Amino acid sequence: MNSIDLFVSNDLVTDQRMQRIAVWLYQHDYAVRVIGRIQKTSKPFSIHGVRTKRIQTLFENGPFFYAVLNLRYMLIGLFSKANFLYSVDLDTLPGVKLAARISGKEFIWDCHEIFTGIPELTNRKFQRTLWTWIEKIFARNISKVLTVTGSVQNYLLDHCGLLSTVIHNYPNKINTSSLLSQKLDSKVILFQGAINQGRGLDILIQAMQFISQDYILHLAGEGKERPGLESLVRSLNLEDRIKFLGQLIPEELKSETDAAYMGISLLNSEHQNSYASLANKNLDYIMAGLPCITMNFPEYSRLNKQWEVAILLDHADLECVRNAIQHLITNKKLYEHLHLECLKAKEALNWEQESEKLTLIFRDIA
User: How far is residue 226's CA from residue 2's CA, in Å, rounded to a whole number?
Assistant: First the structure.
């Protein structure tokens, strides 16, 4: 039996892509182990048939965190009995790739984002220069590369000379538990995802001042920006209308999404990774039949041309966000149209169909 170790830098509880890939590998007769981090706030985690290893690090973030993480991953990879080492994103690439080269194991890189273009590095010249240097050294000469969108695929080819296969991060196909009539009765505006820089959450919170008081905003996730955003909510006296739900497990998040009226996904076009993204939240909204407000970026625009599932914004400023939310609240005919388009789109944008591409990839290297 082939065996594989998958290395991620985040908390395994929230990484649904890696959960899906791990389950797929297990179902196709691989012995699977997923290695990730564990933090003080981490919840219990397990996947049937999949072994997990969750490591603690002295540092929670910053250069020392990544240095220690990659050193530990290199050692784990060197002494691993697995046939394959599978690295996720640039922040695990140095350690896992070195381990594969030294040990002679098969190596796979799954690039989820343009790491050097994430919002968190925008105003950090030293860190961005460091990661650009790491990318130039390690994101080269890799024969098996997966990625999540055509835009990131183009970046890998243009900047790293890497050919890659797009495995979209589509969710598992599920039946929507709430009917259109129930959604129309809902008063919940939902944002799900990391509460971090570049998500337009300050604008979204400010926009709630101008939306009917019947509607409330739920923010499902955690991140560095939460304390500042909570202060903003208090300063605007919106504590009764804006709720921070914290990090939810997938089952809780599905229930929250099903119960919402609309989804929100705002990004800043100045951030290269955001511009190339197709956010997980957008796909989860579609799977739940939930119309959303998002950005007129390439991946969202391409999707919306085939299935009109969202209102697309050219700019995520206060006026545009406020007007879009108000429009989706008052125009029930548009809402119904977007909802029905979501139901059509989910028949194609699901993991059950997308995962068939993995069969070809792993057949070639088995």
Answer: 43
Question: For residues 20 and 284, is the Cβ–Cβ distance under 8 A?
Answer: no
Beta strands in the chain (DSSP E): 3-11, 31-37, 51-55, 84-88, 106-111, 145-147, 165-166, 188-192, 216-220, 242-246, 262-264, 292-295, 310-313
168-203 pLDDT, tens digit per residue, is 999 998 877 678 999 999 999 999 998 988 899 999
Residue with tokens 């979501």: 342
Residue 332 has a CB neighbour count (10 Å cut-off) of 11
The two three-digit tokens of residue 244, written as one number: 């921070």
Q: Which tokens in the block code for residue 182?
A: 């129930």
pLDDT (tens digit, 9 = 90+) per residue, 124-134?
888 899 999 99
Q: Count of residues for the chain?
A: 366
Model pTM score:
0.88
* Helix, strand, coil tally for the chain in percent (to 5): 45, 20, 35
**Average model confidence (pLDDT) across the chain:** 92
Coil, strand, or helix at residue 362? helix
Q: Rounded to whole angstroms, how far apart are CA atoms 154 and 22?
A: 26
**Gap between the terminal Cα atoms of the chain:** 10
For residues 242 and 219, give the distance between their C-alpha atoms in angstroms, rounded to a whole number.
8
